[in-house]
Design a protein that fits this description.
Elements lengths: L24 H6 L7 E2 L2 E2 L1 E2 L10 H14 L9 H21 L6 E4 L2 H16 L5 E5 L8 H10 L2 E5 L9 H7 L4 E7 L11 H10 L3 E5 L11 H4 L3 E5 L10 E5 L1 H6 L10 E5 L2 E4 L13 H17 L1 H19 L5 E4 L8 E6 L4 H10 L2 E2 L1 E3 L4 H7 L4 E5 L6 H18 L1
Parallel strand pairs: 3-15, 5-6, 5-7, 7-8, 8-9
Antiparallel strand pairs: 1-2, 4-10, 9-10, 11-12, 13-14, 14-17, 16-17
Bound molecules: pyridoxal-5'-phosphate (PLP).
């Protein structure tokens, strides 16, 4: 199925307070059944959306409806259910293409960002890179955008160079560009840091990389759920997202790649669905993107992700961005009143993620006591060991916000933090 590229999205992301005012956020919160539950006898305050997002009823219902009424395998059977399942699965591809402003035949549906980045590593980088080549990454990458490149480097003899960050947690762009020397073949950058919240200027970075002939891989896991995206305008070579952070089911994700790359890349996994003809004297592969979708996919998951995309676009990504910026501003202000609290990541362009520590209290102790107050935050290394090493800490706490959170929840979180701080220090 092919979906035509739309004109670039005209609107830049709105800033705090703009555009979101006319939306009934309380009604939107009501769409999320899980947010009504209690934990340890207290109302749940869910501040871990950067880890995984909660699901609106329309997504849960779409998955339920698929299994109750349409379940069949895709692209195989001519019976009615087979056709319905295939149409629903391909409709999700079309919705995702419009969401990202790219063509549907450039989207590989897969299990998430981790799979997507490994696909690029094994299928694009491994056959091309050799000793003497280099890969550039940044200090703020998630392990999913580090380890696949280390595996490629080990096998090819290529080396890895790491771009530094500044004290406020922004990318040191001068350092990054100074690393883009002729032996560099690939640059991997996160669009938004899952620990610092830093929003990287990926459009500018991709322009600079392209001028130097460097292929760019953008990890969009933490961008797609929170801001309007125009992947075509970013000008990268590869862009990866994961469905479960954007209101969709787990086990769903997307790799967007330029068509010329998809055409040249060999399949990553072999099996059914990815072939035109199999003979023992040679197999002819299907065209991209199906060439990269071996085996039965997560059909119900993508039906759910399609519903999630409809839901998010129904609210409007600019409004979601504005709402979350307002929540971030409120939380940053409220946390500044907690004595001894240190925030990691204060870049000017920041998503609604706050990593912090309170004096000498251990991150896990803080998170465990907050959980008893009904507040779910994450503690740990956030799959970003190199960033923890940079800051000289083993772990941080991380509160991450989504449009379904409320200002009252943030106040409850900060009050609970004041309480547990007293218990620990
Ligand atoms: N990249 C970033 C920035 C992330 O935050 C995450 C998930 O936490 C991933 C990659 C990996 O996503 P997944 O585990 O869904 O493949």
């Amino acid at each position: 199925m092919s979906v035509e590229r739309r004109a670039p999205l005209p609107n830049p992301p709105l800033r705090a307070g703009e555009g979101a005012d006319s939306i009934d956020w309380a009604a939107i919160r009501d769409d999320f059944p899980l947010l009504k539950r209690e934990v340890h006898g207290k109302p749940l305050v869910y501040l871990d959306s950067a880890n995984t997002g909660q699901k609106p009823a329309v997504v849960i219902d779409a998955v339920d409806d698929f299994f109750r009424n349409h379940n069949a395998n895709v692209s195989r059977a001519v019976h009615a259910l087979g056709t319905e399942a295939t149409e629903a699965y391909e409709a999700a591809r079309g919705k995702l293409a419009r969401f990202l402003n790219v063509r549907g035949d450039e989207l590989v549906l897969c299990s998430g960002t981790t799979f997507a980045l490994n696909l690029v590593a094994y299928s694009w980088a491994l056959p091309r890179l050799k000793a003497g080549d280099a890969i550039v990454l940044t200090r703020m990458e998630h392990h999913a955008n580090i380890v696949p490149w280390q595996l490629v480097a080990e096998r090819t003899g290529a080396t890895i160079k790491v771009a530094a960050i500044t004290d406020d947690g922004a990318l040191d762009l001068d350092h990054l560009y100074s690393l883009l020397t002729p032996e560099v073949k690939l640059l991997g950058v996160t669009h938004v840091s899952n620990v610092l919240g830093t929003v990287n200027p990926v459009r500018e970075i991709c322009r600079e990389a392209r001028r130097r002939g460097v292929v760019t891989v953008i990890d969009g896991s933490q961008a797609a759920p929170h801001r309007p995206l125009d992947v075509a305008a970013i000008g990268c070579d590869f862009y990866a997202i994961t469905g479960h952070k954007m209101a969709g089911p787990t086990g769903t994700g997307v790799l967007w790649a330029r068509r010329e790359h998809l055409a040249e890349m060999p399949p990553f996994l072999g099996g059914g669905e990815m072939i035109k003809e199999v003979r023992f004297d040679g197999t002819v592969y299907a065209d991209a993107p199906h060439k990269f979708e071996a085996g039965t996919p997560n059909i119900a998951g993508f039906v759910g992700l399609g519903a999630a995309v409809d839901y998010l676009t129904g609210i409007g990504m600019a409004a979601i961005d504005a709402r979350e910026q307002a929540l971030l501003a409120h939380a940053t202000q409220a946390l500044s009143e907690v004595q001894g609290l240190r925030i990691f990541g204060t870049a000017r362009e920041k998503a609604a993620v706050i990593s912090f520590l309170v004096e000498d209290a251990h991150a896990h102790d803080l998170a465990t006591l907050l959980d008893l107050e009904g507040v779910a935050i994450r503690s740990g290394h956030h799959c970003a060991h190199p960033l923890m090493q940079h800051f000289g800490v083993p772990a941080t706490c991380r509160a991450s916000f989504a449009f379904y959170n409320t200002f009252e929840e943030i106040d409850a979180f900060v009050a609970a933090l004041q309480k547990v701080r007293k218990l620990l220090l």
